[in-house]
Structures are given as C-alpha cells and as structure tokens.
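Ticket opened by: R.M.
Priority: normal
Category: complex prediction / small molecule

The reporter submitted a protein together with zinc ion and asked that the result be attached to this ticket for the collaborator who will pick it up next week. Submitted input follows.
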Amino acid sequence: MTEPTPLDREQLQPIVTAVHLRETAALLGLRVLLPPLAPCPTCGSQPTELVVNSDHPAHFLEDRVAFGFRPCGHTFTADSEDLHKAYNAARRETP
Ligand SMILES: [Zn+2]
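Result attached by the on-call engineer:
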C-alpha cells in the first residue's frame, strides 16, 4: 500500500460532484441509473467504488479525510475544508 496522494480543491471537485450526483440519484430511487464516479486522479481508470478510510489518527488531528478507489486501490487525502467547499459548489451546480 502506497502513501495516499493529497488532493487540492480543484482536483477534489469532480470527485465530490460525482458523489453528490450519485447520492441525489440514490435518494430519488434511481439506483439502477446511478451516474458514474469520477475517474481516479492517479491512474484515470473508472472506479466502481469510493471507500472512505477514517482510521488514521494523523488525519483526525490534521482535519483531513482519507479515501480510496476500488478496484484500482489508489488512495487520497483531502482537507476537510476543501471537501466542504467542493460539496457546496456541487450543490449549487445541480438542481
Ligand atoms: Zn487509480
């Protein structure tokens, strides 16, 4: 397992927007028509799953969120404030 790659606010946006669109679709009961996740920033492959890892004490102290994509297995960290801003932007962009 390699060290997670830190993502900045701009790199985070497409990932957060994709997750937000999926959550919105899921709430509407459109599970069979879920929009795809954003491609992995490291390898560009299409993930089938985004997994959040919250078991790293340093991330807790630094207010960072760690997550990874499956099946490629690449992992990332994001500043929780960047994450929050990206989520707000995603909600503004979608109905
Ligand atoms: Zn990858």
